[in-house]
Structure formats: structure tokens, C-alpha cells
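Everyone, carefully examine this protein record:
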Amino acid sequence: MNDNQLLRYSRQIMLPHCDIEGQQKLLAAKILIVGAGGLGSPAAMYLAAGGIGNITIYDDDKVELSNLQRQIAHHTPDIGIDKVISTQQTLNKLNPDVKVIAIKERLIGEQLELEVEKADVVLDCSDNFTTRFAINKACVRHQTALVSGAAIRFEGQVSVFTPGKNNSPCYNCLYNSDGEELQNCATNGVIAPITGIIGSIQALETIKLILSAGDPLTGRLLLLDGLIMEWRTMRLRKNTACQTCGGQ
């Protein structure tokens, strides 16, 4: 690290769980973020600010006026441009040392497999079941850590899945892939700060995984009810009959 980096990350470097060695791990890390919306925005911004060296972002949408209430990586002049480009510009302003790859397309098929295989950690910041299950399958196949978040109305949830480690369940152990499509913000609404809280936790869990610090949310589902400001934790077990990881 150069002198500017030592100063920029000085508050993290002074932490025993991080120090210089840990910060170098963050700078060398490769993170894949799927979705540049309400969750992807704060997650990407905190990861960039914290010194994650390589961030790849996939999203196929453009910035709309209704996004700006919660998708903080985008600004009013960005309306009409690609979300990944807007996010990339924001991250570059926040921390020019970070290499940000922005790809405007839906991450599916062979490309999904390639990106998951390259990543140290994948953040699922998408908003639909189809994408979530596809990401989960790829992460299980390549044994790549997955940090999954969701937010709607005044509610949020986060969990971490570490295939091949700690007897971790997978996303499919929690949700049945034959179920109905998850409700989304477009039809049910969402209060702005909930996405910031959940996206920030996703960033924190990602950094913890890279640093091997503390206990990740593996095998636990963290639930937030923002209306009464109450957190709950559900313990998750590996489902031996899971369609994705049960046979492993």
C-alpha cells in the first residue's frame, strides 16, 4: 500500500481484526454484485469505501425517477442512463483506487458460472426468485460464498451461505424453488432506509468473510422489523432433501 492508502484506510488498519495484512486482503479481493438497486447501491458504496479492490456489477436496468428514493448510488442527473454506469461513476468518485467493472446485462447461464467462479464473494442484491436461485446454484457449484439480502415495506433480511464450509445450508434450503415469485418493491413499496440497512449489512458480512473476522451469518437468517425496530434471528439447517445442495 502507498501512503495515501495507508491514510485512507487508517481507521480500519488500526482494528486488530483487520490491520495492514487484512487491508491488503481487501484490496486483492474480487467481489461480484448482482443488482445495482436499493441493496446493491449501499453495499457497493461501503465495499468501495472500505477498499475492496475489484468490484464487478451486473444490472440490466436504467435509472428511473422512482429509484432515487432509495437507490443512493444514483442521482437526479443520472435518470435515463444505465444503473451500472451510474454506480460505477459514483464508486470511482468515492474511491478511485477501486477497479469497477460495470456490465449492463442480466447475469445468466455460462456468464453467471464464469463470474461466480472468479469471485471471492457474491452479493445477491437482486429482486426476483429466478435470479436468486440461479445465483445460489452457481455458488454451490463453485463453492463461492454468497451474501443474500432482501428488503420490502419496513422489513429486511440477510443471510450468508458458505458452500462446503461449516455445514452451510444454501438459499434453496431456506426457500423452495417451486414457490411463487417473491413480492417486490414495485407492487408493495419499501421505506428508503431499510434498503440502506440491509445493503450495509451485506457489505459488512462480505468484509468479515474476506478477513475471516468474527462469525458470519452462515446458518442464520437475520430479520428486521423496522416498524417496531426489532431484530430476530432464525437458525437454518442444511436440508438433506434440498434440490440444490442436499446431495453434497
Summary: The first helix runs from residue 3 to 8. The first strand starts at residue 30 and ends at 34. Residues 3-235 form a domain with the Rossmann fold fold (CATH 3.40.50.720).
